[in-house]
Amino acid sequence: MTRVQIPERAFFKNIFGLKKMRSLIPDEKLALIKVRDNREKLVNLKKFCPEIIVQMDPEAVKLEGFKSDECYVREGVAKRLCAAAKSLPDGIKLVVTDGYRTMEAQRRMHIRLVRNLKRKHPDWSEEKVIATADLYVANPDEMVLHPTGGAVDVTLAGPDGKKLDMGSEIDAFLSKSSFDSHRISKAARKNRSLLKKAMEAQGFVNYPLEWWHWSYGDAYWAAKLKKRFAIYGVVYFSKK
């Protein structure tokens, strides 16, 4: 997921609306954000905060070689996620489906999405395919967030452990995926508001085209909050 240069704005206006496009932060601006990495370590989120449900995306599990309940994030992110989880109403659980990604995994995910879009839309130009892919999976040659350990994909679950209605599935390529979409039910809107309240209280910022994507400490966070610099840059990690 990223905020990329958009060569055919009319196409995206039709999908997301002009207001939504204006809320995106272009990669050119993110690339100018300075990084002063505070060198926080990556931690195993489930071990750090058992209150959080970790259900990693199957594709991430396959690419990273992690277990389905194994997610790594920066320690500061883990502390804030834990606080967010504890702030939720009784019976409501915070669910994390993705966190840190290696650069190699990020690259492979981007390539896979480009290929899928080309198959699905053979009439699209190369520019449109790349721009669309970049909106949902960051191009590692431009700007990345998950490889910093500061970005997470999250949702909510009820007392029975089942995920709540959020209006769309995580990673769904739909206008309903935009956080403030009006095409979702009142129940879904209420659940998104609950998630937003918990996450923003801990300093996270949302990427507006994806209700599930939240950042802390990375370049997007710094740009959104007008910070002088990001505190998390790309980090290299291996379980070996």
List the helices and strands and how they pair.
Elements: H1 9-16, H2 18-22, H3 27-31, E1 34-35, E2 42-44, H4 45-48, E3 53-54, H5 58-64, E4 72-74, H6 75-87, E5 93-98, H7 103-120, H8 126-136, E6 151-157, H9 186-200, E7 205-206, E8 213-215, H10 219-224, E9 229-230
Parallel strand pairs: 1-9, 3-5
Antiparallel strand pairs: 2-4, 5-6, 6-8, 7-8
Describe this structure in words.
- The structure is a single chain.
- By secondary structure, this protein is α/β, with parallel strands linked by helices.
- The protein has a single domain (9-230), classed as Muramoyl-pentapeptide Carboxypeptidase, domain 2 (2-Layer Sandwich), CATH 3.30.1380.
- 38% of the residues lie in helices and 12% in strands.
- The protein has ten helices and nine strands.
- It has helices at residues 9-16, 18-22, 27-31, 45-48, 58-64, 75-87, 103-120, 126-136, 186-200, 219-224, and strands at residues 34-35, 42-44, 53-54, 72-74, 93-98, 151-157, 205-206, 213-215, 229-230.
- The strands form three sheets. A five-stranded mixed beta sheet has the order 3-5-6-8-7. It has a two-stranded parallel ribbon with strand order 1-9. Strands 2-4 form a two-stranded antiparallel sheet.
- The protein starts with 8 loop residues before the first helix and ends in a 10-residue tail after the last strand.
Quick structural gist:
This protein has 10 helices and 9 strands. By secondary structure, the chain is of the alpha/beta class. Helix 7 crosses helix 8 (126-136).
